[in-house]
Amino acid sequence: MEARKLEFESLYFDLFELDSGIFAAISAEKIPSSNAGFFDLGNYLVIFDTMMDPYATRDLIKASKKFTNKEPSFLINSHHHLDHLFGNRIFPMSVPIISSSKALLQAEDTLKTRFKDFKERAPEELKRTEEELEKQKDPNKIKEFQNDLNTWNEIKDPNFSLRLPDFIITDSFTIIGTRNQVEIVYIGAAHTEGDIMAIFEKEKICFMGDILFEKTDPSWATSTQGVPTPPDPKHLQATLIEYAEKDFGVYVPGHGNLCTKKELRENAEFYNEYYIKNN
Ligand SMILES: [Zn+2]
């Protein structure tokens, strides 16, 4: 089936049905962020990654209910980076959050200090964001800054807590639904210490998280801002080559538009050129 763009109003993403019951939320140009997905397995609704902005995650849940008539059964975090799990806290505690054991460890290690820092910075960030908001005329920017204000207020609240994964895997497994079945593939160290992907073999669709980007940028290799250095660039490159050789029609990247084998090969070459060749 050809990917079909659906009618859904969101500032944050465009919604596609890639095959029957398999949906990808692709970050919109208006407020560029990370991608996510949701899968109607018949008896289960699986959400793949959240989005950085809590309002984007709320839209994702709204879209999943609208197009599947179901409540989320499971949430998957492809890896521990904040732009993929910051929306975890929006999900009810009855929804298990699946990640690799390494993703949980890395989240515990890095995010606690980051949030301590965020809490300290919150008053000054609120002031700065309010000033920015006053200058804005673009309605999308206004919405973005209002959402930032709400998020900083939430972080400042002493009761704020980030919900971490609680259904921890160290290997691949399959969820066999009454309609579709999805394989949750444990990759291990690649973009982070513990990446996982979601695969629909029959439909030839692969949700890759940040193992794949539509576009890469050589400045990542030299800058401390932006995309962090992958812990295992060789395994990342090998995974990209392995999956480019498999029989998939659509690859959903962690950031950017839907991809084909071409982008996987470009990503593999990028890691070779900037992270492997001279090291
Ligand atoms: Zn990432």
SSE pattern, N- to C-terminal:
EEEEEHEHEHHEEEEEHEH
- Fill in the CATH topology of the largest domain: Metallo-beta-lactamase, Chain A
Report the uncertain regions: none
Major β-sheet annotation: 8 strands, mixed
The value of Rg in angstroms is 18 Å
Gist?
The chain is of the alpha/beta class and 279 residues long. It is 36% helix and 21% strand.
Task: Describe this entry's structure for a reader.
The chain has 279 residues and is of the alpha/beta class. The chain folds into 2 domains: 4-101 and 165-276, Metallo-beta-lactamase, Chain A, CATH 3.60.15; 103-156. Helices cover 36% and strands 21% of the residues. It has 6 helices and 13 strands. The protein has helices at 54-68, 82-85, 101-135, 139-156, 233-245, 261-276, and strands spanning 4-5, 13-19, 22-27, 36-40, 45-48, 74-76, 97-100, 167-169, 173-176, 181-188, 195-200, 205-207, 250-252. The termini are far apart. Zinc ion (ZN) is lined by residues 79, 81, 191, 210, 254.
